[in-house]
Amino acid sequence: MTQTHTNRDDAEIRKFEALAARWWDPNSEFRPLHEINPLRMGFISRKINPAGQKCVDIGCGGGILSEALARQGAQVTAIDLAEASLSVARLHQLESGLDSIRYENISAEALAEQEPEQYDIVTCLEMLEHVPDPEAVVAACARLAKPGGQLFFSTINRNPKAWLFAIVGAEYVLNLLPRGTHDYAKFIKPSELANWCRHQQLEQGELIGMTYNPLTRKYKLEADVTVNYLAHYIKP
């Protein structure tokens, strides 16, 4: 099902389509996603047991988080606007045998119109900084969640340290990501995300940072939210 929606950045979509074949190569440009995925899943699982829950994964890419959710027993609807990424996700799904994932080429806003208040868990990780109107995506996420639903967002803070670490360090010095992966102007302060969520009457849960140590090459969750961060919200 292909949807056209104004809240899309075709240059961003082309960027990820060009890399699509490498989504599941743990040594590719997507290595950081493979390495942080256990941290992301651990954070989600501490808030709600995915088993038996209906989950929607917004901006699922090649399905790294979607498959992790399915392995923990969730029924997953995974959506993305990059069809090449979805094709890779579906192929990997055949290898994984995880038939509890439904992949769709549709925007969050369009899905929210079709399936409002249908999901126990809404995840939107490493996606908000890649769209023209992230607030509209947050509103769609809120609409998709059932009353009592749990919502999870992750993105990058906007400040000089985030520019230094997430762009200069990650893309140019350590080569963790392809150059041009991120646009500093699209980074989102936790206060901005919190404001958008308040507009949707969402209640804030935990806010935690995700840091990288270049010496040990390890990621971990800690209180420092100055660069990457994860945010948990609840729909009353």
UniProtKB/TrEMBL annotation:
Organism annotation: Pseudohongiella spirulinae
Cited PANTHER family: METHYLTRANSFERASE (PTHR43464), UBIQUINONE BIOSYNTHESIS O-METHYLTRANSFERASE, MITOCHONDRIAL (PTHR43464:SF19)
CDD domains linked to this entry: AdoMet_MTases
InterPro entries per UniProt: SAM-dependent_MTases_sf, UbiG_MeTrfase
Pathway membership: Cofactor biosynthesis; ubiquinone biosynthesis
Reactions accelerated catalytically: a 3-(all-trans-polyprenyl)benzene-1,2-diol + S-adenosyl-L-methionine = a 2-methoxy-6-(all-trans-polyprenyl)phenol + S-adenosyl-L-homocysteine + H(+); a 3-demethylubiquinol + S-adenosyl-L-methionine = a ubiquinol + S-adenosyl-L-homocysteine + H(+)
Family according to the record: Belongs to the methyltransferase superfamily. UbiG/COQ3 family.
Ligand binding (S-adenosyl-L-methionine): R40, G59, D80, L125
Listed GO MF terms: 2-polyprenyl-6-hydroxyphenol methylase activity; 3-demethylubiquinol 3-O-methyltransferase activity; polyprenyldihydroxybenzoate methyltransferase activity
Top EC group: transferase
EC number: 2.1.1.222, 2.1.1.64
Protein name (Swiss-Prot/TrEMBL): Ubiquinone biosynthesis O-methyltransferase
Functional note: O-methyltransferase that catalyzes the 2 O-methylation steps in the ubiquinone biosynthetic pathway.
Pfam families referenced in this protein's UniProt entry, alphabetically: Methyltransf_23
Keywords of this entry: Methyltransferase, S-adenosyl-L-methionine, Transferase, Ubiquinone, Ubiquinone biosynthesis
Any single biological process term in GO: methylation
